[in-house]
Amino acid sequence: MTLKNHPLLITFEGGEGAGKSTLIEHLLARFEKLNYQVMKTREPGGTLLGEQVRNLLLHQDKYPIGSISEILLFLTSRSQQIQEVIKPHLDKGYVVLCDRYNDSTIAYQGIARGVGQRLTQELCTLACNYLEPDLTFVLDLDPKVGLNRTQKMEKEWDRLESLDLTFHEKVRGAYLKLAKEKPNRIVLIDASLPAQAVIEQCWQAIEKRLLVRT
Ligand code: T5A
Question: What is the model's pTM?
């Protein structure tokens, strides 16, 4: 099997506990088994600066963060990560699997927080210098189920996870809207299915769109 277009940027989106990290681990192993150069990264984070920004954004409650400041901090992490990690790997022909990207900013800040979809999209475009994913999976899940999954992991909820259910329902609605608007790039996946079924659906979509049998 070979890649039709190579290098590739594949992004993974969805609400809290939708199963992105689990899915990425499995897809990474599949690409490796087929001898592709593949790497995974996450947003916010992925660089020293990005991990500092992640701590500022998610793991503190000492000071408020306004919605525009919040967007600019997420985009600081992304811009740095593109420059330091994503672009250099794409230039070397890697498949890059990225846990969250611009659709997170548009869904969480642009739509759910109410900053505005268009303005947020423009800021994202500026920060990522027009680098769009080749393929995006949106893992769709009832936020009650997703938050319940993260609770079971016994990790401390971060600043955004701790927002009320109405916020997380808006995030879900935002992702559904984006999936409708960008059907060529975004594949909507039912994340309430068992993990193995989610993995298989995503792998099939990758094969269909990006791989050809030789
Ligand atoms: N954010 C981020 C913004 O507001 N704007 C932005 O621009 C960006 C980039 C990131 C936070 O920042 C926000 C969004 C987030 O609030 P994070 O810690 O990276 O914070 O949080 P998440 O990305 O949401 O990561 P989670 O770990 O919470 O969720 P995942 O990765 O989607 O889920 P995963 O794989 O860890 O699975 C959770 C649990 O469910 C199980 C797993 O085993 C695990 O226990 N599971 C399943 N169980 C049943 N069925 C399945 N299909 C399952 N798949 C996994």
Answer: 0.96
